[in-house]
C-alpha cells in the first residue's frame, strides 16, 4: 500500500522546477503540507482542489514522514 501511495509523488525537472509534486499536476508536496498545517482538513482541500484525491493527501503525508526519518541533522557552516 505504501509503495502505491508513493507512486503518486512525481519528480519532473520541467514541472515545478523539479520539486516533488502530486501526479505531475503541479501541486507541490510542500503546498499541500502548508494547507494541512494551516488547519485545512483533507475534505476542505479536496473541495477546493477538485482534481486531487484523498489518496494524494495520504501520499503527501507518507512522503513527508519518510523524509523526516533521518538519522541525524548536521549544521552546515555559514
UniProtKB/TrEMBL annotation:
Signal sequence bounds: none
Coiled coil location: none
InterPro entries assigned = DUF433, Homeodomain-like_sf, WH-like_DNA-bd_sf
Q: Which domain of life is it from?
A: Bacteria
What protein does this entry describe?
DUF433 domain-containing protein
Species annotation:
Hyella patelloides LEGE 07179
Amino acid at each position: 500500500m505504501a509503495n502505491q501511495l508513493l507512486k503518486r509523488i512525481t519528480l519532473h525537472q520541467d514541472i515545478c522546477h523539479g520539486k516533488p509534486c502530486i501526479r505531475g499536476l503541479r501541486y507541490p508536496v510542500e503546498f499541500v503540507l502548508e494547507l494541512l498545517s494551516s488547519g485545512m482538513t483533507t475534505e476542505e482541500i479536496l473541495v477546493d482542489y477538485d482534481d486531487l484525491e484523498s489518496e494524494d493527501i495520504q501520499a503527501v503525508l507518507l512522503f513527508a514522514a519518510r523524509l523526516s526519518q533521518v538519522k541525524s541533522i548536521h549544521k552546515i557552516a555559514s
